[in-house]
Amino acid sequence: MTIRRLEQQIQFIIEIDKLKQIVRQTYLTDASRRENSVEHSWHLALMAMVLSEHANDPDIDVSRVIRMVLVHDIVEIDAGDTFLYDDKHSESKIDREIAAADRLFSLLPTDQAEIFRQLWDEFEARETKEAKFAFALDHFQPMLHNVITKGKSWQKHGVKKSQVIEKSRPMQEGAESLWEYISDLLDYSVEEGYLYE
Amino acid sequence: MTIRRLEQQIQFIIEIDKLKQIVRQTYLTDASRRENSVEHSWHLALMAMVLSEHANDPDIDVSRVIRMVLVHDIVEIDAGDTFLYDDKHSESKIDREIAAADRLFSLLPTDQAEIFRQLWDEFEARETKEAKFAFALDHFQPMLHNVITKGKSWQKHGVKKSQVIEKSRPMQEGAESLWEYISDLLDYSVEEGYLYE
Predict the structure, then answer these.
(1) A197 assigned to some structural domain
(2) pLDDT at position A1, please?
(3) Which pLDDT score is estimated for A75?
(4) How many distinct structural domains can be found in chain B?
């Protein structure tokens, strides 16, 4: 163990503090303010702990899902949060995020930079059962917050049910039952006027 | 799987959103505002991932440390955050937090309520190597933020180096090298006038 190694690790730990300042479009459940990407990530990690039995594959590695969701938004420190329904910005999203991953994870010692990059790449590729379940949680959480806040973010941005379904239906690949649960809440949200038909 | 079970899990997930509103005495590293307990918990989980090689016991179960730190502050939803150097409030802290744990974790299905309670009890008891390391991270993070913000929270509350050492020295039981690292920064902080001698 060299001091240099610990110094690199501490620099990374200080740098990621900036993720607390990246504000998302999703509101807290009491609608008092928008949440930031750290709050979102913590919430997903807790959801992974509580909801893993609803993953399509019961043999899922929950600890890996937890790590993946804790890390998945760190690139937003450089790339910013891209709103799911902002198609214009979504085009450049992946390039911005790859550049961010290159810079941010390389603050770590090489072996750890690789581990973090693999977690992020796995999340983005959405091929493993863990990444598919992480994707499901990443979409389930803001939808749940929208239903609870009477569609506050949906209303603000004029989001339609067909858009929500198009973006979030791949949740089925990770957690069919959570998709069914939230689909019912989308129907309810249209009935209540929280979400445009 | 019953709908009732999923409903209970969702109620817990919604309830813990309130932890995003519990503000701590620690400032973000840019000193712009105080952080909340969710931000602190996420930061500790990332520190567990990055710094686990500095635990006294190399055979530590990192995934358990991550879960422990993600869960350790949930009781603050009811009990509030108790400032480490507030001895008056610290006396009643444990009673308030036990009542909170009783209420909050019991929102979950019984089997999961037990798992969460065990994680919290383990953290509080500080007997296992994982709990000792989690304690070390829980103390290391706010000290690091204080050094970076030129002692912003220490200054505000007139905290002395002897108090910091008294409260945080048990870090040694979990991570001797992190305690040494931060001890040097405490000396530096006194020299710079960030922390009272």
Answers:
(1) no
(2) 55
(3) 98
(4) 1
Q: Best mutation site among B2, B12, B17, B117 for testing chain A: the one with the most A CBs within 10 Å?
A: B17
Residue B13 C-alpha from the chain's centroid: 20
Listed in sequence order, the residues at least 6 apart from B178 whose beta carbon sits closer than 8 Å to its beta carbon are B51, B54, B136, B140, B171
Is B197 inside a domain boundary? no
ipTM tops the 0.90 cut: yes
Question: Any CB–CB contact under 8 A between B112 and chain A?
Answer: yes
Alpha helices (H) in chain B, listed in sequence order: 3-15, 37-51, 62-71, 76-79, 87-105, 110-125, 129-148, 152-156, 161-168, 176-192
Residue range A14-36, pLDDT digits in tens: 999 999 999 999 999 999 999 99
Q: What is the domain-level CATH number for residue B162?
A: 1.10.3210.10
> With an 8 Å Cβ cutoff, is B23 touching chain A?
no
As beta bridge partners, residue B6 has none
Q: Is there a domain that residue B48 lies in?
A: yes
Closest Cα of chain B to A192: distance in Å?
A: 20
**CA angle A101–B44–B74, rounded 5-degree value:** 125
Choose the mutation target among A9, A23, A24, A38 for the interface with B, i.e. most B CBs under 10 Å.
A38
| Yes or no, beta carbons of B14 and A29 under 8 Å apart | yes
In angstroms, the CA B125 to CA A82 distance is: 42
- Chain B CA closest to residue A113: B50
CB contact, 8 Å: A114 with chain B?
no
Q: How far is CA A38 from the centre of its chain?
A: 10
Please state the separation of Cα A143 from the chain's center in Å. 12
**Range of the structural domain that residue B99 is part of:** 3-192
| Cα(A190)–Cα(B184) distance, integer angstroms | 59
Residues ≥6 apart with Cβ < 8 Å to A165:
A183, A186
User: One-letter amino acid identity for A42?
Assistant: W
Instruction: Look up the pTM and report it.
Output: 0.97
